[in-house]
Amino acid sequence: MTASEEVTRGEGRRRRSFSPRYPGWLTTPSLLYYAIFFLGPLAILVAFSFATQTGFNAITYGFDTSQYHLITGADGLYIHIFERTLVMAGTGSILTMLVGYPIAYWMARYLTTYKMLMLLLVLVPFWTSFLIRTYALKIILDPHGYLAKDLGIDIMYTKYAVAVGLVYNYLPLFIIPVFASLERMDWTLVEAATDLGAKPFNAFRQITLRLTLPGVVTGALLVFIPMSGEYIIPNILSGGNYEFVGNVIGDQFASAQNQPFGSALSIGLMIALSGFVALYILVATKEERFGA
Amino acid sequence: MPRRGRVVTAKRAFTVWALGVFAFLYLPIGVMALFAFNKPSPAALEGFHGSNVCDIPPSQLGNLTVWNGFTTCWFKVGLHDPTYIPAILTSARIAAGAAIVSTLLGLAAALALARMNKFVRVPFDSLVYLTLVVPEIVIAVASLIFFVQLPHYVPFFPPLGAWTIFFGQVVFGASLSMLVIRARFVGMGDSLEEAGYDLGSGRLATFRQVTLPRLFPAIISAALLSFTFSFDDYVLPAFTNGTTNTWPIVLYSAVRFGITPAVNALATLMLAVTILVIAVTGLVLRRSRVSAMAGDATAETPAPIPVR
Predict the structure, then answer these.
(1) Spatial CA neighbour of B246 closest among B174, B157, B305, B168
(2) Among residues A96, A191, B14, B120, which is most buried (max CB within 10 A)?
(3) Which residues of chain B does A149 touch, with a Cβ-Cβ cutoff of 8 Å?
(4) Architecture of the domain made up of B84-300
(5) What distance in Å separates residue B58's CA from the closest CA in chain A?
């Protein structure tokens, strides 16, 4: 119930002179746009995944499931790539959470004057080009650079470089929702708990962590989903040694030219992520209701 | 007082951690900017007898990931490169168009959706969030197939190129803009608009004189976000570009090839421009007493939005 409804009920006679609404047809342009340029491509992707390749760049539509059988067959090669992608995205998400939560906590709990400045410092990399950031990381990790030569950390073109790249690029995306939920938290609850004798860690675990869990879940989904669809990071930082599903999909359209198989892989990736996507949409639209 | 001491220790530990994270975030960018001023390796310089060290062909530069000495000539090389600058201009044109159209679509949808009943709003929202979280590589290849097939059925549809990049990017931009603008719109309430109506102002006049000025910061952030996304986007354009080269596309091929200080120089200039734009926008919006930059959007954006 909104505040204005309460007023209406309380006073009985006073009705709102006007409820400022905008006409529903204002959604039509975007709806049409999504229908053509978002749902259209996805529909044709599904059609392609069931089509048959009849020659170079020539296909016949039909209901051919052989591409899907190829994903599950092929001696488990493609299933292995799916597994590897999800495991790596999971690892990247957990690392991001471990690195990111303390800094969000630090900003929300201990900072006052410099809070917004520090938040801005977290956000600046987020506004700069993803590609430039990955390139910058490549310079640092180069086998001839200081890190490899002087400190012995030679991880370029391995899965470790991919993991570092994932955390580096997605860290701000996790920090933002967690910081927002920490900002909304009532810190006097923690104070009350410690005053009543709770150990600081127990107070953190039972109060802070529990209250910020929605932010952590949103943040984790927000980094896990795009990490699973990642294309640039494995390509640049693993040099082809640690390909994700996204890279295999890209190859089918760039060099291999097996578009039906690439389409089936894309649908496969969407199916693999559907649970997480559904959960994200549920959380996102639910939070919407609190805002409205 | 033991408890106070423990609080101070905890605070110190968190501060050290935070400094470490900031080092992690900024060290690579800083090193990249520094190496934009790096000379070719001593071995490469020995065999070179010209006057400008940046004339040495990229393949003979030697190890560029250690410091070899200071030079500014890479900036000149980068700015005179026949591929980089035209690509940057192409990207800027596409991004400007995408930002304008995305913001208009997003604004219109945000106004109507914010006060709609939830049986219409939730399905629409789900579609919007879906456009943001479907992996970009999937959208990219789907759009490629779509844009290749469409001219067979729609005679005037343009071939792969700047237009198709633009069409694809506006989907994401419109969703982003809608969420940013609506968050502000919902956050500011409707009492001032109601006052406008009560005082006899019409629908359009109220929108122009009350709603629009108050939404302005959010509209600017939406446009900037859409511009940045479009300008920096690699994956979608890489598949739908035809023969058009955008800045991320030429950057990507340079990055895959190896480390080129001219690329460092241009990337550093771009970073400087980005930071300048953020700073100026932040100041302008702060002066208008409402900052709707991404920072404050955390308070106003109902649900966090992924930005690729």
Answers:
(1) B168
(2) A96
(3) 66
(4) Orthogonal Bundle (1.10)
(5) 16
Assess contact for A156 and A237: CB atoms under 8 A.
Answer: yes
Q: Do A180 and B299 touch (CB under 8 A)?
A: yes
- Residue ranges per domain, chain B? 2-78, 84-300
Fold of A76-291: MetI-like fold (1.10.3720)
pTM for the predicted model, two decimal places: 0.88
- Which residues have a Cβ under 8 Å from the Cβ of A246 and sit 6 or more positions away? A85, A229, A230, A231, A234, A269, B135, B137
User: Which of B159, B189, B225, B137 shows the shortest CA–CA distance to A266?
Assistant: B137
A280 in contact with B at a CB cutoff of 8 Å?
yes
Question: CB distance A30–B194 less than 8 Å?
Answer: no
Q: Token pair 């939406």 is at which residue?
A: B222
Per residue in B9-48, pLDDT tens?
888 999 999 999 999 999 999 999 999 999 888 888 887 8
Per-residue exposure over B1-39, b if at least 16 CB sit within 10 Å of its own CB, e if not: eeeeeeeeebeeebeeebeebeeebeebbebbbebbbbb
Which of A270, A247, A235, A219 has its CA nearest to residue A93? A219
